[in-house]
Please model this.
Amino acid sequence: MNTPIADFVRRYAASGTARLHMPGHKGRAFLGCEALDITEISGADSLYEADGVIAQSEANASRLFGSARTLYSTEGSSQCIRAMLFLCLQARKPGTRPVIVAARNVHKAFVFACALLGFEIVWLWPERMESLCACEVSSDALDRTLASLDAPPAAVYITSPDYLGGMADIAALAGICHRHGTVLAVDNAHGAYLRFLSPSLHPMDLGADICCDSAHKTLPVLTGGAYLHIGKGAPSAFAAQARQAMALFGSTSPSYLTLMSLDLCNAYLSDGYARRLAGTITRIDALRQRLRQKGWRTLPGDPLKLTLDACAAGTTGTALAQHLRENGMECEFADPETLVLMLTPENTDEDFARLEAALGENHAGARPQPALPHAKGTQMLSVREAMFAPHELIAVSNALGRISGAPTVSCPPAIPIAVSGEVITQEAITLLTHYGVDEVDVIKT
Model:
């Protein structure tokens, strides 16, 4: 597959052209990548008015992912989430309120987008709260929720895979959405690679109307590289207005280094990636099986995540993360209950061996799995009103009964416990304390 962005940038870097344009480093080496770091010069195309090399590269990505249209982001899935919600808002049934139905384990970028766009959120809650990161949505629960509304919402929004690797039944949920006259939007930030499994588990192949992928999370792309995918069955306005939606929330100075890496990734994906991916998943499955034999409990989830149940091992995920750190390894995410490790075909045999050796045998007795409460707080202000009201930071211990301002949570996982405009309940305080949050943003009184 051709790589038009990378080819242009490399030609320009080798041309010896005097750079009488931005950026200010003029291609001189400070980090070592400056020669390839350019701006929208003649021939380089422009991300939000693309009709040249960027448009050609995005068309390559669209073919690879089987979408009606794929656009690039250099500002991660956060930009794509805002664009998705804007498109859903614009395409909703005329005369209906701006309502969106969402599983509660959303990234805080979703909450920010709802504040900017004025969405009302109807939350889908898990039947049992096992982790801040997880929110299993059953087909029946979604069906009941949609049937209870007086009009179809602008969209249903889910996160799949979630941070622990949990995967929703997208095909079933998409069918319910379409039967109720709405669309399914998926935060697939952790699942760009799912398209290249056999069979594909990517949202675009399972009936979702629109989704985002953080290419940089699972593919060899620089940080910030992401895709916005429009499904072939989505409302026609999605594809027609997608570029405008991305421009509304994006910088006019996108990183060409990131664009170049997205472009080169197309060639990488088209050249034996599915085979390499299958081989890596086989290695992960074998490692998972050996760890189980050594006394570790692994949680089910997406194929490139290895998630360990720390409670079953008699410890905490944060303690396991520190143990790996002391042995020269860094995990993706750890909390009191779990340790999340993300692996790709770029991980070496040495990485696998070091991980297995560091974990070793585990024969500790299990510790109790804590019962986590649902932090359901009354919505006293709209998300928009709360986000733009004056705020202050206070100790979590003093937050009972206060109204949440901006979402206060670490990243990862960037999943709010108390959403903007909600009353902070004792259950929310319990969760904030459990996840090590000391201060919370609230509306000034």
Residues 301 and 310 are 16 Å apart (CA to CA). The two ends are 59 Å apart (CA to CA).
